Amino acid sequence: MKRIVCGVACILISGMLLDLFAQTENRKCTIKTLIGSVKVRKGSTVNWFDARPKMVIKERDAIRTFIESDVELETSEGTTLKIGENTAVEMAVFLEKGDLQNTKIKIMNGSLICNVKKLVNNKSTFTFETPTATASIRGTIVGFDVTKEKTLIRVYEGTVAVTGEGSRDLAILKNNQMVSVTKGQKTIVVQALDESKARSEFKSDDEIKIDSSSIDTSKTPKDTITNKKTGDASGKETAAHELRLSVTSPTDRQVFTKTIIPVSGKTTPGAEVRVNSMKLNVSADGVFSGTVAIPNEEGDAVFEFEVSLDGERMQQTKTVFYKPQYRFSVLSPSEMQVVNATIIQIKGEVQPVSSEITANGTRMSVTQNGSFAGMIQIPDEEGNVEIEFEITSSSISRTERRNITYKRPMDNIVPQLQGVLPDIATNSPVTISVVDRTPDEEITFTCEVDGSRTSDVGTSNYPFKVPLENGVHTYVVYAKDKAGNTSQKMTKKIAYLSSNNWTITMRKPVNIEYIDIPPSTPDFGFEPRYTIELSIDKLPDDDMRLIRDITITNQTTGKTVQDKTFTSNYVERDFGLSSRSANVFLIEVTDINGFKKSQKVQVVLR
Asked: What string of H, E and C letters represents the secondary structure of 484-525?
C-alpha cells in the first residue's frame, strides 16, 4: 500500500472542552486538490459521495481514499493535510469559539502527512487519534502510518506529545524522531527517525514522500547529484550516476480537454519516478511514461514529479489547464415526449462539469462526472410545453430548448381520507386530510352529524376540519373530487364534552343526616343500612356516556362501590352503616376528559 507521510503540528494532549463549542462559518476546512477516487461521508449519514475540489469538510465528516488516490485538505488558518491512498479519516472535532480553535482528526487506517500552522494561543488544541495512540500537536510537520494494531509516527519538524491507547505513559517527540505504538503497549520508546526501518515495520517498499517546502532545506537533497562516491561489494569507490529528470509531457500551461493526461520523460537509469505519488514504469535506459487522471473540474491541475536513486531525490512541478469541450445532452424527457404528470424529471449530461444548469428557472444538480438531474413543475394545461435550459460556466453561457406535450390523464382514482375519528374526543375540531393524485384538484368534503349534512370545498392534501358537538353523536365524513370520484365513508359515534359545567346534586343525604336508634341495644346481628342517592346534572342531553365512572366510599367502614355504566343520570347505592357513629361518605365523579369532582356527606347514627 502506498503511503504519503504527513507533516503535522505540535500538541497538547486534550479532548477537554471540545464538545462545548460549535463550528462557525469563520473557520473552514476545504478540499484543495484530489487525485483518483475519493469519497466523503457527511455527518452521521451512512452514504458516501464523490469528493470534489473546494468541497467544505465539516465536523463529523469522514473521507476515504482508494488505490492510487489521494486528497489534500486546507484549513482557513493555513494548515494542510495530505491523505494518502487506501486511507480513512474523520474530522471528529473542528470548532471555534472566540479566539479558541480545537481540532481532532481520527485516523482509522492508512497514511497522511500534515503541516499544522502554529496555534493561535495556548488554549487551542490540534489532536490526532488512531486505534492505538493519541498525538497532540502545536505547529509541526508530522507523518502517520496507521493500522488497527499499530501506529507509526514520524516527526520531521516541531514537537509532538504521544500517548498509547489506555496508557498514561507520555512521550515527547522532537525533530527527526519517531515512535511505533502497538495495541496494548504501555511504554513508548522514542527512536531516531529511520525511514528504512519504518518501511520494514509496515512491509511496504513504497517511497515515503515528504513535503520539502516545509522542511529545513539544509537537510534536503539537491535537484541534481553529481559524482557521489559509493562503495561496491569489493570495497572500491565508484562514482554514482548523476540524478537527472527531464519531463517531456505535459508541458507548463499546456491545455487539455480530457481528464486522462499522458506523462512522459527521461531520468537517470535505475531511478524511481513518481508523479503525484503514483509510481511510473521506467525502462532500462531511463525513459518513463504513463497516464494520470485529474479532477473533472475546469482550471489548473498540478503534476508533482519526483525521482529517487540511492537515497537522493529531486522534484519538478508542471501546471496544466483543463478546459473540457462543451457538450450538452438531455436524456429525459425526449423531444416531443407525451407526459401525463405536471412534475417532470430532468436528466442529462454536460461538459464542463463546473457548469450551472437551470431548467425553466429551476436549478439542476450536477455531479462530478457531468451528469445532471432535477425536477420541474409545468402548468396543468394540456398542449405543447417548452423547457428552456440555461448553461453557464466560467467559459460558456448558452441556452438550449426541449419541447414536450402534456396530456392530462383520465381521473378515475378516488380520493383517500387520512385521519382518525375518535370514540372519545377531548379537543374539537378533528382534522381529516384528503389525498388525491391530481395536484390542486378541487375537493368537496362532506360531514354528516346525526344525519344533518354540511360541506366544505378545498384542494388535494387540504386539511379539512370536523367540528364536534357536545354529547354523543354519529359522524359520517367523505370526499368527492372534481371528476366525481367519491372516497369511502368514515363513520364513528363520538362522545365529546367541551367543558366541566356539570354538577353533582346530592339527593340523600343533602349534607349531614342524623338517624336515631332505639335505646335498647340490638343484638349483634343487627346491621343498619342506608341508601345514597345523587344525580349528575347539566350534562348535554343528560347523557351519562360522558361520565367515565362514579365512586362512592363509606370512609368509616371502608366499603367502596364503583360504577362505569349507567341507565340514567340518577344514581342510588345501598350501604351498611357503622352503629352509633358518624359514617362519612366520599362521592367522586370523573368525566370522559379525566376531570374529577367530589363531595362529602355524613350519616350519623345516635
From this structure: CCECCCEEEEEEECCCCCCEEEEEECCCEEEECCCCCCCCCC
- Triad 554, 560, 564: Cα angle to 5°: 130
For residue 8, the SS3 value is coil
Residue 388: its pLDDT value, please?
Answer: 95
Beta strand 80-83 with 62-65 is unpaired
d(CA 521, CA 537): 41
- CB atoms inside a 10 Å sphere around CB 256: 16
Domains of the chain, CATH where assigned: 18-213 (2.60.120.1440), 246-322 (2.60.40.10), 334-406 (2.60.40.10), 416-496 (2.60.40.10), 503-605 (2.60.40.1930)
Ramachandran class of 394: left when φ > 0, alpha when ψ lies in -120 to 50, beta otherwise: alpha
CB 146 within 8 A of CB 129: no
99 burial level (CB within 10 Å; 0-12, 13-18, 19+)? exposed
- The phi, psi pair for 219, rounded to 5°, reads -105, 5
Alpha helical stretches, state H, 113-213: 195-201
- Which DSSP category does 252 fall into? T
How many angstroms separate the CA atoms of 8 and 139, rounded? Answer: 7
Q: Name the residue type at position 72.
A: E
Which ranges in 557-605 belong to alpha helices (H)?
none
* Adjacency order of strands within the sheet including 596-605: 512-515, 596-605, 582-591, 547-554, 559-563
Nearest-angstrom CA–CA distance, 146 and 167: 18
Read off the pLDDT of residues 39-53 as tens digits, 9 standing for 90 and up.
999 887 767 889 999
* Distance in Å from the first CA to the final CA of the chain: 103
Residues facing 336 on adjacent strands = none
For 135, residues 6+ apart whose C-beta sits below 8 A from its C-beta are: 8, 11, 127, 128, 129, 142, 144, 153, 160, 161, 162
Using CA atoms, how far apart are residues 585 and 532, in angstroms rounded to an integer?
A: 9
Q: How many CA atoms lie within 13 A of 295 on its CB side?
A: 24
Place of cell 430548448: 401
480: amino acid identity, one letter: K
DSSP 428-480: SPEEEEEE-SSTT-EEEEEEEETTEEEEEEEETT-EEEE---SEEEEEEEEEE
Enumerate the H helices of 78-225 as residue ranges: 195-201
Residue 262, CA distances (Å) to 289, 294, 326, 488 in order: 7, 11, 21, 69
Which sign does the torsion angle of CA 101, 152, 6, 262 carry?
Answer: negative
Q: What is the pLDDT of residue 322?
A: 85
| CA–CA distances in Å: residue 603 to residues 514, 535, 579, 588, 606 | 6, 18, 11, 17, 10
Percentage of the residues of the chain whose pLDDT score is greater than 70: 86
Task: Provide the pLDDT for residue 546.
Answer: 92
How many helical (H) and strand (E) elements, i.e. helices and strands, does the chain have? 1, 52
Q: Of 324, 317, 349, 303, which Cα lies nearest the Cα of 259?
A: 324
Please determine, for residue 217, whether its predicted confidence score (pLDDT) is greater than 70. no
HEC letters along 49-70? EECCCCCECCCCCEEEECCCCE
How does strand 463-466 pair with strand 397-406? Answer: unpaired
Query: In the predicted model, is pLDDT for residue 579 greater than 60?
Result: yes
